[in-house]
Write a structure and sequence with these properties.
With 163 residues, the chain is α/β, with parallel strands linked by helices. It is built from five helices and seven strands, in the order αβαββββαβαβα. Helix 3 runs parallel beside helix 4.
């Protein structure tokens, strides 16, 4: 789905900030121990620069960054406030179902991840839903940590600076 054909409207910046402020625990679904993966980079940031209790979910891993990895959301020792998803598009409906079954409050689909049916169903079930945004970048942007991501401008853009 291209940006031009998108119809779902996500939460505003103040709404995303409020979501991040009331979040205490984050489950990363699709977490990876591969240092080249975005989920590993996000996990590293959240563990070092956020107040969140971070849990990892991946049925094929046992430990990431010294933390246990759980096979599913149902196996976590807590109900996470926010589920951060690094999974393929076709897996998202299943992740939504798991999120609803465990009683999490928010579903966050990472950059490049967009599924309007999942978003609508999640919102109808009472979830806060964010799509196509990076939890790490949003947290850093709102909490002054963009320098940790290599951004000091306060502006997130893929365009090169002139000069």
């Amino acid at each position: 789905m291209t940006a031009a054909t998108r119809t779902w409207i996500g939460p505003s910046a103040p709404e995303r900030l409020a979501l991040l402020r009331r979040t205490r625990s984050v489950a990363i679904v699709g977490a990876s121990a591969n240092t080249a993966r975005a989920s590993f980079f996000v996990a590293t940031y959240l563990l070092s620069s956020s107040p969140y209790d971070v849990y990892f979910v991946n049925p094929r891993a046992s430990e990431i960054l010294g933390h246990p990895v759980y096979p599913s959301l149902a196996d976590l020792p807590v109900v996470p406030d926010l589920v951060d998803v690094f999974r393929r598009h076709d897996d998202l409906p299943g992740v939504l179902e798991e999120t609803l079954e465990v009683g999490a409050k928010a579903l966050w689909l990472q950059l490049g991840s967009w599924h309007e049916d999942v978003a609508r169903r999640g919102q109808e079930a009472g979830l806060d839903v964010v799509m196509d945004r990076c939890l790490k970048i949003e947290h850093a942007r709102f909490h002054g940590g963009l320098h940790l991501a290599g951004f000091d401008t306060g502006v997130i853009s893929s365009r090169r600076a002139p000069g």
